[in-house]
Design goal:
Elements (H helix, E strand, L loop, with lengths): L2 E3 L9 E3 L3 E2 L6 E10 L2 H8 L8 E2 L3 E9 L11 E4 L9 H4 L8 H5 L5 E3 L2 E5 L9 E5 L3 E3 L6 H7 L2 H12 L7 E5 L3 H12 L4 E5 L3 H9 L4 E3 L4 H9 L4 E6 L4 H10 E9 L13 H7 L2 E4 L7 H13 L9 E6 L3 H10 L4 E5 L1
Parallel strand pairs: 5-9, 12-13, 12-15, 13-14, 15-16, 16-17, 18-19
Antiparallel strand pairs: 1-2, 3-8, 4-6, 4-10, 4-19, 6-7, 7-11, 8-9
Helix pairs in contact: 5-6, 5-11
């Protein structure tokens, strides 16, 4: 079958090969034919080495498709069923799951160390234990979440990561209050979803911050009340909040420099929500006095900060009701053979989300 493979960490292009085989099928597993997958910034971060990932590997973790086969012991799933892929399934029995923090379950991360694919030259891993830039993938049954027939594959793929992460950051983690002021730094697919979440929660002012003009324009269509370049954020803070700072600031870039800016843009007693996935060696510096004196809440948000299955259901319900716009998040579409074009669209910032149709 065909799959897009990164041979070595640090390479900036993928090679689409036709000699890749999905492996590991057996008890408790399902084989899925991928129909659509989104390109998430985390895929690019894994390629560059910002996020740890063994190589060679097939990127992609935001996917949807149809079940081809189910292994022994799998219940509730059947061939032909339409599913989205959950790259962080909950085991249900670890301490995090028992506390109700299923999004912090580590079972899914353990899958990242087991090869999902193979080629004549050896094993190939799947990013985050999945690897959706491929025609087929074999995953644990818990990774396959059934979707209703009225949800298109491309929409379902987005719900599998970016939409759930952004909406959840605003709704589950930060719990944005009605009438509040919000700034969102980084307006790709996740940032736009955070903007939609803040709007749903009733935020009065939502300032979108991004260096790319097309993304700023898009943010206004999705609910931002104002959109500015990074060098105009200080002015927006002064105009909108009288210099006090925003009630909520979302950092959706994953860099210490923007996190520091976000901290300084948050009012005393306000909330900084860190959504971006950054590098192990990128440290955010805060002094002990400001931590004490400013009493700003710093809330990291992992995969939307809540039960992902409930978050999927909520996103589908909101989409059906017309309360959130998911179709417009997909600004570009390419076939698997055009995956490097999709990577360029992300790196230049022209795309909110590119859908790879497989």
């Amino acid at each position: 079958m065909r799959a897009a493979v990164l041979h070595e960490i640090g390479q900036d292009k993928l090679e689409v090969l036709d000699d890749v085989e999905a492996v590991g099928f057996g008890p408790g597993k399902v084989r899925i034919r991928i129909r659509a997958t989104g390109l998430c910034h985390s895929d690019v971060s894994a390629m560059s080495g910002v996020l740890p990932q063994p190589a060679p590997f097939v990127p992609g973790h935001e996917g949807a498709g149809e079940i081809v086969d189910v292994g022994d012991g799998v219940t509730g799933l059947a061939p032909g069923q339409r599913v989205l892929l959950c790259w962080l399934p909950a085991c249900g029995s670890c301490p995090a799951c028992k506390r109700g923090q299923t999004h912090l379950c580590l079972a899914g991360f353990l899958n990242a160390g087991t090869p999902n694919f193979k080629r004549p030259g050896g094993d190939v891993f799947g990013f985050a234990g999945t690897g959706t830039f491929a025609e087929e993938v074999v995953v644990d049954a818990g990774c396959a979440v059934p979707i209703p027939d009225d949800v298109p594959f491309d929409i379902a793929a987005l719900i599998g990561c970016g939409v759930t992460t952004g909406l959840g950051a605003a709704i589950n983690t930060a719990k944005v209050e009605a009438g509040s002021s919000v700034a969102v730094i980084g307006c790709g697919g996740v940032g736009i979803s955070a903007i939609q979440g803040a709007k749903l929660q009733g935020a009065a002012q939502i300032v979108a911050v991004d260096p790319v003009a097309s993304r700023r324009e898009a943010a206004l269509r999705f609910g931002a009340t104002e959109a500015v370049a990074p060098d105009a954020l200080a002015d927006a803070k002064q105009r909108i909040t009288g210099g006090e700072g925003f009630d909520y600031v979302f950092e959706v870039v994953g860099r210490s420099a923007t996190a520091r800016t976000a901290y300084e843009t948050t009012r005393r007693g306000g909330t900084l929500c860190v959504v971006g996935a950054g590098a192990l060696d990128d440290f955010l510096q805060l002094n002990m006095f400001e931590l004490f004196f400013d009493e700003k809440r710093i809330l990291p948000s992992m995969y939307g900060g809540g039960d992902v299955l409930r978050s999927y259901e909520r996103a589908i319900a909101l989409w059906r009701a017309g309360r959130i716009d998911l179709a417009s998040l997909i600004t570009h579409r390419v076939p698997l053979a055009g995956i490097n074009e999709a990577l360029e669209q992300m790196r230049t910032g022209v795309a909110l989300r590119t859908c790879i149709e497989i």
